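# step 3/5: fold
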Amino acid sequence: MLDDPVTAVKGIGPKKAQLLRQEAGIESVEDLLYYVPRKYVDRSSFKLIKDCFVNDVVSVSGTISAAVVAGRRKKYLEVEITDGTDTLAGVFFAGIRYFVKIFTVGESVIFSGKINFYKKKQIVHPDFDFIDEGSTVQSINTGRIIPLYRSTELLKSSGFDSRGFRRAVKIVLDRYLTHVEETIPPEVLKPHSLPGIREALYAVHFPDSFEQADAARKRLAFNEIFFHQYYLSLSRRYARETGRKRQITIDDAVYRRFISSLPFTLTADQGSAIDDIRNGIESPYPMNRLLQGDVGSGKTIVAMAAVLLSCGRRKQSAFMAPTEILALQHYSYFKKIVGSYIRLILLTGGTPRAEKIKAYESIASGEFDLVIGTHALIQEEVRFKDLGLIIIDEQHRFGVEQRSALRGKGEDADLLVMSATPIPRSLSLTLYGDLNVTSIRSMPLNRLPVKTMAFPESRLSGVYNSLEKYLSQGRQAYYVLPLIEDSDKVDLKSAIQVYEDLKTRVFPGCRVELLHGRMKQEDKDSVMKRFYGGDIDILVCTTVIEVGIDVPNATIIVVEHAERFGLAQLHQLRGRVGRGTEQSFCILISPDDISDESSIRIKTLVSTNDGFTIAEEDLKQRGAGELIGTKQHGHGATFEFADLLLDIDLILYGRDVAERLVAEIQNIAEIWERFKNKKYSPLLAGIRNKKLLSILS
């Protein structure tokens, strides 16, 4: 029943079903049940328009009395509403062609935003939603909490604005809710007062109070937290009981020669990290360790030490990077530093077929100590003679199954995953609960910290002048924008627009190139190689360079519309510079008038270079203000409902419950095989299959 297609819902035909799948990922009735509101509005807390004054931030509801396109030089749409006490206008400067179609005289609408006054009370570009006073969910439209759903222009044009979603969800709840099974015992739910799954699904859509909505969210969050912790606990126990290593003493002569040959002294954190790794390699169980540290903190030297220690056990090592160009950079750096101590080879998707076949034979015979590559390393043809260490760079770019596939190429291989994105404690507990964590917080003494400065858009010409000075000295620069091309939906500059402007007007004598995510991989690699080689002065790009190769001569990064980026993302972008010996700069440009939240983010980045401090602050900022949990992007797993700041108690509790239940399993190997074959425990039947697969992918 729950896997019925959405066409089983009255009013949804094949065309609408296709649109729901494309725009919202909704394919089944179950998907619609779990398509929870993005936020709620409390109808009882609305202000009357007559009681609204300049600078008040309000929500008002009323009936549209007029919708008129006005303005001579710059057109705008004025949508006037009345609630019987006064009138107010919603003013739209962007997207006029779209908005003029959807605002119809006589419709009931909610406007939210900041009041200003120009001839009459108005809100510029208000948040808005329609209320269907004649719908089957009439009872929640007056004096109650109203759910508002994520939508797109295409969905809205087909009737799936919040009103449309409310109608469809109500139909599904009435018809299908009784088919949702409760699988988690009451004694597990009781300590945190978590409601039953049916009660939670109803309340998350149509709550009687904000408290009830939050309790419903927590129950749905517990489902995904609990499953993930169950999987990690199962993984840990299986590794302990089936993965005993052959004890081989490390011959560390080569390792000691390497350390003594370094032209610098390791930081205390680097030394501690190597000690942790050595203890892991020497332990009777396979090592599972996460090595995290800021860009430039010296993780690669630690990885080299790990490889040499593993070679001291006469074992091979594999190093997997997320892109070919990063794999090539690692290969070149390893060859330069440790190439005289070990035999290493590069293997990527771009390696010619004839060379691949030869490489497969050499790797299988044990000719090479270290294989550096991309996803190509997990292909079936790649076989190792005796794989002892696996290193995965930028762990968050790989899923659990990819990690397991590489690990399956060695009987008792140790695992070291590296991340240049420092991870807050609650996030590491959730996503890397099967790993021990080592952090490198101190930076090498010879590394100059990047100087970060923030300017309003009105001072952009001064930024251009400074940039021109450094370019004339032979330096290179990144220039980052949030969008690839112009959009009617938002008033933001795009990478294409700025690329054309910089190339033709601002820096006509410079070599300016464009890089973005829609380009073919080989084209992206080509541009990056030219930038690395010094053939490009300014690289205009999107966040595609967030994780990229080191370009020591690139000493400036300019980020326009910095207010549109998250704190951790800005920090990662800043890490693209400061890779050489020259002083580097990060310039953040934003409109003169930005929100308080954006201003705090930018000030935080200017005030500190500590990635761990930034990570905690970023989680606080992203976790706050959203009634329904956030999706955490870029860390491997996706959580729809769990708030990794607010739900730390649930995370710890879910881990304890999972560990207790896993400890009771008698036949751990059999259960693990069932998981690998997607045959999950009946205990987890209350979590939809699509969510299980997304957490593991």
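# step 4/5: annotate
The chain is about 40% helix and 20% strand.
# step 5/5: archive (pending)
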